What we know:
Layout: E1 6-11, E2 14-19, H1 30-45, E3 51-55, E4 60-62, H2 67-70, H3 75-80, H4 88-91, E5 97-101, E6 104-106, H5 108-115, E7 118-122, E8 126-128, H6 142-150, H7 152-161, E9 165-166, H8 167-173, E10 178-180, H9 185-197, H10 201-213, H11 219-232, H12 237-247
Parallel strand pairs: 2-3, 3-5, 4-6, 5-7, 6-8, 7-10
Antiparallel strand pairs: 1-2, 8-9
Helix pairs in contact: 6-7, 10-11
The structure holds acetoacetyl-coenzyme A.
The site of acetoacetyl-coenzyme A has 21 residues, from helix 2, strand 6 and helix 5.
Amino acid sequence: MTYETVLVERKGRTALVTLNRPKALNALNLQVMNEVVAATEELDRDPGIGCIVLTGSEKAFAAGADIKEMRPRSYMDMYLTDWFTAWDRLGALRTPTVAAVSGYALGGGCELAMLCDILLASDTAVFGQPEIKLGVIPGIGGSQRLTRAVGKAKAMELCLTGRTMDAAEAERAGLVSRVVPAAELLGEALAVAETVAGMSAPVAMMAKEAVNRAFETTLAEGVRFERRLFHAVFAVADQKEGMGAFVEKRPPVFGHR
Length: 257
Ligand code: CAA
């Protein structure tokens, strides 16, 4: 399929999805939402793809949901169209995802980054949930995912004052896994994606499922879930290959989908 607001490139087993609405700093209107979801779901169905990188421009990963599009809407518009709900499908992809964030990741932009599995930031990244300054609150999971990522005190401050945090603060707070110089961001993100895509595809899916379960259940249930998946990987040929390669002192060659 072809898209107007996202660019899709395939590089071996990794895919790069770039938000491409530069005049509006990648503001997330309905078209962007539908195209990001369609493009990533198409990649998710492709057995040749093992990891998806989502990025924006140097100035803006995404400056939020589209304020001009939302401004005239009524409660009934928002409710009946179930505004923003399609974004949940990004979090439900089975293929691991990496957000490569440079510049502004505000409001829906921060929420979009948090919907990805690994979050890498450039030293120019700026994160925040400034919706309160527009008289609204986050609507793509920001109040929940930011709180789980950085804790109540900082999430409350960001959501109640609208103040932003720079990349260094985001890394200290645990929102991002790593900060790299802006010029190296995409290269690093693609290298991480290539590493993930080189692993056993079903085992990577199980690892992703297990980590995500930590956000949705009690510790005891989460550990039980992990244990069941751990037992299940012994039914995957890649377990024999990975452990066999270690013992035979050679690199493993994992199967894919
Ligand atoms: N929606 C719609 N258009 C946006 C936008 C947004 N979120 N962010 C930027 N734009 C547009 C601007 O209107 C401007 O368009 P025009 O040239 O037609 O006027 C263009 O992008 C460039 O923006 P600026 O001139 O403002 O650029 P700047 O460099 O001076 O400032 C900025 C950059 C600080 C990011 C500023 O654009 C800004 O504050 N944007 C809004 C940030 C925001 O409040 N995001 C939250 C949105 S609500 C939300 O996301 C709800 C949710 O939970 C999902």
